[in-house]
Specification:
The complex is a heterodimer of chains A (316) and B (422).
Chain A lengths: L1 H32 L6 H19 L1 H27 L4 H23 L15 E5 L2 E4 H23 L1 H11 L1 H6 L4 H27 L5 H16 L4 H20 L4 H8 L10 H4 L3 H4 L3 H12 L11
Antiparallel strand pairs in A: 1-2
Chain B lengths: L6 H25 L2 E7 L6 H19 L11 E7 L4 H13 L4 E4 L3 H17 L6 E4 L16 E3 L4 H13 L6 E7 L2 H17 L4 E8 L8 H10 L3 E4 L3 H14 L5 E3 L7 H5 L7 E6 L8 H13 L9 H16 L4 H8 L3 E3 L5 E5 L4 E3 L2 E7 L13 E8 L18
Parallel strand pairs in B: 1-2, 1-3, 3-4, 4-5, 6-7, 6-8, 8-9, 9-10
Antiparallel strand pairs in B: 10-14, 11-12, 12-13, 14-15
The chains are: A mainly alpha (316), B alpha/beta (422).
């Protein structure tokens, strides 16, 4: 039992940190501009596809550097030529723009790369088992994912709190007029923040692409989960997003690793139902089966009990 | 606005038009293609499986019939792909579209849930519209219920169902004394559940010391990372894994097995083709077994070899993933020629109790009681030794190690079929 739990925890951490990389970008963009970027998971998908295409002629490692840059530049352009123009029409207009962008990107990806899953593989350098525990290997690539995600969090945190640009960024969140009066180009700061956010999504795509599959549905599969994390963590809080992402990753992983189900609950209550009972599907439910539902259940609970999220600090 | 031509001229033109159309109409009727609706996923999680199946079917239609003058006196076979994204609702929409466009033959196979919905929909439609009937040719959906409790006169299944395949698999597992603890994992829908139920029923009955240590169901088409499930398999102490997973779910499971370095034999129904073989690669050598129809390497006939070479020349990035599609098409055409028409009722009557010698040289039989095909079943292993035709350009492929003859795959029929009035 403990070995399953250990691996479940490790996997939960890897998934959670990957989700955090996505959620951090959304949080950053939301803090800056009050825009919930619905197309964020689409930039994640673009990152994976760009890395796949770039890795063919250049190899994986240059692609790892270039693809997030490319995605970031694309994001900055979207902000400059799209969001900035609809900003005056209010937050709903910006939301609808990003929503439409998500659809557009998905169709464009299918147009250029086709609908099949791309053969994007883990680089040979890291394609080996790092260690074996209780008869199961832990791939080195996942350890790399873990370290990279932690490194990004540390870099982001340090960048926002210690560097000058980080200070200007944080000041522009709460006092954009004052910052503008001090002579900083606030629109350009916003554009850069958007670029950094989408670049982070692209990076998440590059490292997740070989593991979770590079296919046109990859944005849709993670998109809603990212918003769940952002809301649970609290809109605008990076630390909240970190905790929420880890929580969701671990929760799903532990749920799958367990083998409890309704049968155990019924046994506890001393109830039993005949096999042809009309609600038999309910009585046969197990926790691994409902694991995909758990983040959304948590979301509903959080909205009912603590709408601001775990560490929410932006209300407008 | 336009000056009308004089009356005499109009009569001449009319007569000429009628004469020409009378001259050409028998030819146009004869040239009218037989359109086959291919209702399977062309996008979404299972796009690869549906797409390669569509290519195999279209190529077979071209290779065997259209290039040689067509069927029923010169009619071309036209396969039309209707994307259903492996979803029941989309399948029903596509069925309605196919019917409205006058298509009388529906091929479907990816997902028993879809096949079940189509079978019910077609049965209902045929009851209400006896002059516009449709036939369902199910080439791969193998939930047993489709030819048992939910059997239909208008549904024909061209692959052995899950219970038949599980029986062969159980025999093969029981013959290996090293296997004592089996873990079953499957997709959470009708077929996956049927496999789990069949395994629970058949495996412990084969040998006293053979037990099931897990029967796991996961959401279909959604799990990309099987590592947590692999952890459970390892924790259960299993020494063999059984799964009915197909398509993208089998790719992801294969990757999980390869990544975890799991050194157990895995018994499957669909662990080959469409990226699965490439993902398994070295890690799966001589450990991944598949129960399926149609003999794998070494191919027993030149016709099979020629077809494969021709298909791979036309589609270098694909393989002949489902030869049962070719068998289905051949039996359909054989029935059409025997009935002398493309009327679904006549074709259905001709299909019942028909036999075909497949391009691999095997004899297959369509049982009239339940419209279930019976054929020799094979157990093949994923390997790179003795492989003439590899898959996914990986150097690895399937080598057949055991064949169960048709007679030994026969199962009793519980179908109570409602036959249409003659």
């Amino acid at each position: 039992m403990t070995d399953a739990l250990l691996f479940a925890t490790l996997n939960g951490l890897v998934t959670g940190l990957l989700l955090f990389m996505l959620a951090s970008g959304v949080t950053l963009i939301f803090s800056m501009m009050g825009v919930l970027n619905f197309a964020h998971a689409s930039f994640y998908m673009l990152g994976a596809y760009f890395a796949f295409s770039l890795s063919q002629p250049l190899g994986f490692w240059p692609a790892l550097l270039l693809a997030p840059l490319l995605t970031g530049v694309l994001g900055a352009l979207v902000e400059r030529h799209g969001l900035r123009h609809v900003h005056r029409h209010g937050p709903v207009a910006e939301l609808v723009l990003t929503f439409g962008l998500a659809f557009l990107i998905e169709e464009l990806v299918q147009l250029f790369w086709g609908r099949a899953t791309q053969d994007f593989r883990v680089p040979a350098l890291l394609d080996f088992p790092l260690f074996t525990l209780f008869g199961q290997d832990f791939p080195a690539w996942r350890a790399f994912m873990l370290l990279l995600s932690l490194g990004i969090f540390a870099l982001l945190y340090a960048g926002l709190t210690r560097t000058r640009y980080g200070l200007i960024l944080r000041a522009a969140i709460t006092h954009p007029q004052t910052v503008a009066n001090l002579g900083h180009n606030v629109p350009r700061i916003f554009m850069l923040a958007f670029g950094v956010g989408t670049g982070l999504a692209g990076l998440a795509g590059v490292i997740a692409g070989p593991v979770l599959g590079t296919w046109p549905g990859m944005a849709a599969s993670l998109g809603s989960l990212v918003f769940v994390i952002v809301v649970i963590g609290g809109l605008g809080s990076l630390t909240g997003a970190f905790v929420a992402a880890l929580l969701i990753g671990l929760l799903q992983s532990w749920a799958i690793a367990s083998s409890v189900g309704m049968a155990d609950v019924l046994a506890l209550l001393g109830l039993s139902f005949p096999p042809d009972h009309p609600l038999r599907d309910l009585w046969r439910l197990t926790l691994p089966q409902v694991a995909p539902l758990l983040p959304y259940l948590l979301l509903v609970l959080m909205l009912l009990l603590r709408p601001a999220g775990l560490a929410g600090n932006r209300e407008n | 606005m336009f000056c009308t031509p004089p009356a005499a001229l109009r009569r001449i033109v009319l007569a000429a038009g009628l004469g020409l159309s009378a001259l050409f109409s028998p030819l146009t009727l004869a040239q009218e293609p037989i359109r086959i609706a291919f209702i399977d996923p062309q996008s979404g999680s299972f796009a690869a499986t549906g797409n390669s199946a569509y290519r195999v079917l279209s190529f077979a239609a071209e290779h065997f019939y259209n290039s040689k003058g067509g069927v029923l006196g010169g009619r071309r076979l036209e396969v039309v792909a209707l994307d259903n994204k492996a979803a029941v609702a989309d399948s029903q929409l596509q069925l309605r579209r196919a019917i409205s466009e006058g298509m009388q033959f529906v091929f479907s196979g990816q997902s028993s849930a879809v096949a079940s919905a189509l079978s019910t929909g077609i049965e209902r439609h045929n009851e209400r519209n006896p002059d516009a009937r449709v036939l369902l040719l199910n080439y791969a959906a193998v939930d047993p219920v489709l030819t048992e409790d939910a059997c239909s006169f208008w549904h024909f299944r061209f692959d052995a169902h899950a219970d038949m395949k599980m029986a062969v698999m159980a025999d093969h597992i029981a013959a290996n004394p090293a296997i004592t603890r089996v873990y079953v994992i499957g997709q959470d829908y009708s077929f996956g559940q049927a496999v789990g139920a069949a395994a629970a029923r058949l495996l412990p009955a084969r040998r006293a010391d053979l037990q099931l240590v897990g029967n796991e169901l996961h959401p279909i088409g959604q799990v990309k990372d099987f590592t947590p499930y692999i952890s459970k398999i390892v924790a259960s102490g299993a020494n063999a894994v059984v799964t009915g997973n197909w398509g993208a779910d089998m790719v992801a499971l294969a990757r999980g097995i390869a990544d975890a370095g799991l050194d157990l034999p895995v018994y499957t129904f669909y662990a080959a083709y469409d990226g699965i073989t490439r993902t398994l690669g070295e890690a799966g050598r001589n450990r991944i077994h598949m129960v399926h129809n149609d003999h794998a390497n070494p191919f027993p006939s030149d016709e099979r070899r020629d077809f494969t070479l021709a298909f791979e020349a036309a589609h270098p990035e694909l393989n002949v993933t489902q030869p049962r599609l070719v068998n289905t098409l051949m039996m359909l055409v054989q029935a059409m020629e025997a009935a002398g028409s493309s009327d679904p009722l006549q074709v259905a009557l001709a299909l019942e109790d028909s036999r075909l010698t497949t391009m691999t040289g095997e004899q297959v039989w369509m049982r009239p009681q339940d419209h279930q095909l019976f054929a020799p079943l094979h157990v093949s292993v994923h390997t790179d030794e003795g492989i003439e035709f590899d898959l996914d350009r990986s150097g690895f492929g399937l080598r057949t190690v055991h064949t169960t003859p048709l007679e030994e795959t026969l199962t009793p029929s519980s179908c109570q079929m409602q036959r249409p009035a003659p």
